[in-house]
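re the bet — no i am not wrong, look at it urself. input seq straight from the record:
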Amino acid sequence: MEITGNKKGKREFQQSLGFVALQMCLLAVIISLGVLLVFIFVKGIGVINPDFFIKFPEDGMSSGGIFPAILGTLLLSLVAVFFAVPMGVLTAVWLVEYSTSYKMVRILRIGINSLAGVPSIVFGLFGLAFFVKFMGFGPSLLSGGLSLGVLILPTVIRTSEEALLTVPVSFKEASLGLGATRWETVYRIILPNSISGILTGIILSVGRAAGETAPILMTGATFFTMRLPNSLFSEVMALPYHIYALMTEGTHPNQLAIAYGTAVVLMMLVLVINSIAIYIRIMARRARQW
């Protein structure tokens, strides 16, 4: 009995130690994130005002606002979504519903997972070689948006695939049993019941695309422009590249504050996008409960 009691006490001690270690790791992450956010917010809040959102840069980007960079970031993300979402969702549908070769699916999934881990600068080089040079789009909104679309494509495929797999098999069997074709089952049963998960993945992908610098550095972003884009072949400013330009090329003291203010705006944009994804997930759970 004494030996059994010692073993039980040892296990409880190990469990308590494990919980403490997990809590310390969580606390370290929260503190690190909090320090980062507070530091950037304190450094950049001084330049945040209504004019900062609606004005063009002035005096060599040492004053004025960041409206062209905000608009450019939104347009680049929009082009990326229009490219990646249809291709990513249809690829996921094929992998889940239409593929018949297990070996082929396994190879494709390994390739998709590997592509998701490729550094973003590689996507920038691909965009420069393929969209800018080979396709002849030049440094433009289209080239930058398509490069970001290729970047987020693996994420869209994986999240869409996981969402499709959550649909109960009984739903599919009932639809097929009532005489529906496979495509009708996908279109009317599977996609509507997995749309919340697909939308969550898409929104999170948009958040990543909005914050990337390397893919647009060589394909579509420009250092400074006083013109708003008037076509897909126009160069655009973007928030991440604007921060990079101010921190590396800027010489005016006020440019550092503007860089931090731009970082605050970018973080707010990503936070809003992630909050929308969380809201969609919560509403989807409530809908399932009802």
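see?? The longest strand covers residues 57-58. told u. also The domain at 74-289 is CATH 1.10.3720.10 (MetI-like fold). so pay up
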